[in-house]
Write the structure tokens for this entry.
Amino acid sequence: MCGIIGIVGKTPAAPRVIESLKRLEYRGYDSAGVAVHTPKGLDRRRAQGRIRELEAVLAAEPLEGQVGLGHTRWATHGAPNLRNAHPQKAGRVMLVHNGIIENFAELKAELIAAGRTFESDTDTEVVAHLIDQGLEQGLAPLAAFKAALNRLTGAYALGALIEGETQLVLGARRGSPLVVGYGDGEMFIGSDALAVGPFTNRVAYLDEGDYVAIGPTSAEIYNADGVRVQREVRTVAASAALVEKGNYRHFMEKEIHDQPDACRYTLSSYVDPIGGQARAPDAFDFTRIARIQLLACGTAYYAALIARYLFEDIAGLPTDVEVASEFRYRNPAVAPGTLAVAVSQSGETADTLAALRWCKAKGLTTAAIVNAPESTMSREVDHLWPTHAGPEVCVLSTKAFTAQLTALISLVVAAARQRGRIDAAEEKRLVQTLLEAPRLLSQVIADTEEALRPIAFEISRARDVLYLGRGPMYGLALEGALKLKEGSYIHAEGYAAGEMKHGPIALIDESTPVIIVAPSDAAFEKTRSNMSEVIARNGQVVLITDAEGLAHAPAEARTIVAPTCDPVIAPLIFAVPLQLLAYQVGLAKGADVDQPRNLAKSVTVE
Ligand code: F6R
């Protein structure tokens, strides 16, 4: 949440800040701002709303100078208005912040008592005042910055400019990520490698508690104890080209179409096509563990929920799954021998990270299935199991979800073989099935994209939509409903199909579309009965099934036919029509599918 860029550069800073903020907009887009050391002193421009609003402000009132700071905000403390937009200002200091300062109320009371006045409702302004107070007391910029950091509890990535220090940008991280970018005679700080991607691909990731002063040619990095340290400078692949939309109208559309490749690249780390074997990328031994605890939020949680069915059914491995925000605060009784596995696109989600750290502190072995290879989770876990979906820009997760499923299903096969639940021939068959998934993903897009359009148009007029599924398709029903809510703002709920008669059936009438996800698997007959119950109450059924399911579909149901596939990869393939439906309903409603209101891509606050 919130994106930060800081530049000590050789060319005008403001346009570069804008370029970077556009790449960071996925982290939040409630307001945006830029501060620059101009010939007349430190100055800022801010705007409520998207980066394009800030661009318009800058066009009317440009900022001249080569050293600057930018921010795109996802509001936590204080409404998303101009007053609360960053950079926040106090005396000589302009400051941008990603995170939450938990003790801001007491610090603010103390600062007010000391005679300071506040312009905003943000926790960030408190930090700006603390730094300025240090400067007033005669501390040098870096010392004033560190003194302020010492007073903070909570999570932050910070960037600061100080009046008169025209070749200096300060940065710090605790709980929220920050990178240092090394350019040619210029330096950067940014929320992630994408932020500095337009300017350099050489980055160093700050550790927890680190703070940094960058000048035109160097970065002085200090750890939490104030000791000067070196952090490895790596060349990263987050090239600007990877995050272009190409010929697609939206990133969501592009990323849905990226899925065959995302699946293919991910499989390359998990299966050996020649030997017909599946494995964790680091050859993890699943006979070492007694159970798995899957931890995730949102869409990643639904991938984990689907995986639980498969780990227990195919690998006979007891598996628990819980949303990380619940797990972390309820003092769970985790059995010894449990492997804690986080599932996360960003690798930065605050709740998932905290749950993972909790498990680590309890002595559990930890693993993470993560799409962002340089993220905090990637660096903290014992076993990193990457997905290779590439940068996902649309706030609605699509290709990261199917890449997570690809990794999880591969791990299920590996665990099943290692634990003696399947023999080599069955492993080979399942690996072959997984290797067919990229082709089937292309096919399901081709087969359903057009067929969904008229249905999407009708659903765009609905007030409520229900999604039903059984077994692994239950997780997809939840995911389908989440995608529709995010993409179109239509109220949608997912249920286990068998639960419908325990309450949700009361909602069924002729105006309530019911999307049923049911390939022709062992549960099909049962789900067909649920369809009949809906139809008997004049509900509008849209059945997403395969050719065999179509042959047994009730005549009243509208049908979308996905390719026939093995049940083990059905969650992967059947996810696609649900994503396409949400996208098309969003388009029909004129919604901003890539950046829906109130959301952010990377949820680094709790
Ligand atoms: C929904 C969506 C979110 C994320 C959730 C977890 O489309 O994208 O529900 O899945 O915020 O994020 P990660 O996977 O980054 O931990």
